[in-house]
Amino acid sequence: MKLGYDGKRAVFNMTGLGNYSRTLLRSLSLYYPDNHYFLYTPAYEHHQRLDFLRQSTNIYVRTPRTLMSRSCKPLWRSYLVTHDLKSDGIELFHGLSNELPYAVKRSGAKSIVTIHDLIFLRYPELYPRIDRKIYRSKVNYACRTADRIVAVSEQTRQDIIGFLDVDPARIKVVYQSCDPIFYQFSDEAHKRQVREKHGLPSQYILYVGTIERRKNLLSIIKALPLLKHSLGAHLVVIGRGRGYKEEVLAYVQAHGLIASIHFLTDVSFADFPAIYQMASAFVLPSLFEGFGIPITEALWSNCPVITSAGACFAEAGGPSSIYIAQNDDAALANAIVRVLEDGDLAKKMRADGYAYVQRFRDETTAAVMMGLYQEIIS
Questions:
Q1: Is the Cβ–Cβ distance between 73 and 55 less than 8 Å?
Q2: Cα–Cα distance between 25 and 38 in angstroms, integer?
Q3: pLDDT digits over 239-278, tens only?
Q4: Do 147 and 112 contact (CB within 8 A), yes or no?
Q5: How far is residue 309's CA from residue 187's CA, in Å, rounded to a whole number?
Q6: d(CA 43, CA 64)
Q7: Residue-wise burial string across 336-361, b where 16 or more C-beta atoms lie within 10 A, e elsewhere
Q8: pTM for this structure?
Q9: Domains of the chain with CATH codes
Q10: Which of 203, 227, 268, 311 is buried deepest, with most CB atoms within 10 A?
Q11: CA–CA dist 178, 183 (Å, integer)
């Protein structure tokens, strides 16, 4: 089969949507090598996270070919790319992030779209009005046009049905897998090197994610003073942010928490597994997620998970993670204390979480997705 993919986020996005795109494409290429995979991106600049493209013999990167396409790349990605799909003989095009090219049917290819979340509809106050209109237009078109729709969780599937009135029979849940780099355990020498490189404390809880209001990092920070002083727990934060990050930093400074919180940026992806593996707990008090890849990264790393109750969190975290009501800082603090003080509980959470996360292996996701492709094409 000749399969086409929207490659913009695979190439340019180093977080959630980019991780999803790269992991899926790498897995399909590895486990189903007889197919040809075409990655359509408005530009291409190689970096370490894309090494698998150079190593693969069945993935082909396509950028705008004509003068008009190169001079107006958004136009190419949304419309003119369909000419390239037809020229390359693409049989099925997969929109990896909530959208499809307009007039994709003119290419002659079948189409499928992955919907990660509809948070802009559930929490519209978190998005500028113009962004909401653009997102709504794109996701409506994609869901009307696609031959099938992939939801990354049952929660997202229910949101697609509820918010967009889509026939449930057209939607299939295909869970995400995380990068296989998390399948390997770091030795003590590497852990020590990473700890020294980033100035990590001897004991810490970990937050990984964009620093934005929806992720609710302030809930962890407000819980810290409620912990027992004897625990000496620090918080390590990995992620970028803008306005909300400034609010977080102002709170940290105003409450004298600077010594207890470590903000890291530009962390090498190769260091992430060791950072997870050395953490006493991973905490994600997010208001809402489509799935929550950092949760599965933590489970792969034998790191106990504390996250929010409701939504998709239990789908990602399994039965042995701890779930806390949103914005209940006292309950969050109590959960952290339990994990840090109760060695038997932490040990059980690590073992059970690692067993649970096996269902999200990359070969499993690739098999389900490939089966869906074959069903659509046939």
A1: no
A2: 10
A3: 999 999 999 999 999 999 999 999 998 899 999 999 999 9
A4: yes
A5: 34
A6: 8
A7: bbbbbeeeeebeebbebbbebbeebb
A8: 0.94
A9: 2-177+361-377 (3.40.50.2000), 181-359 (3.40.50.2000)
A10: 311
A11: 9
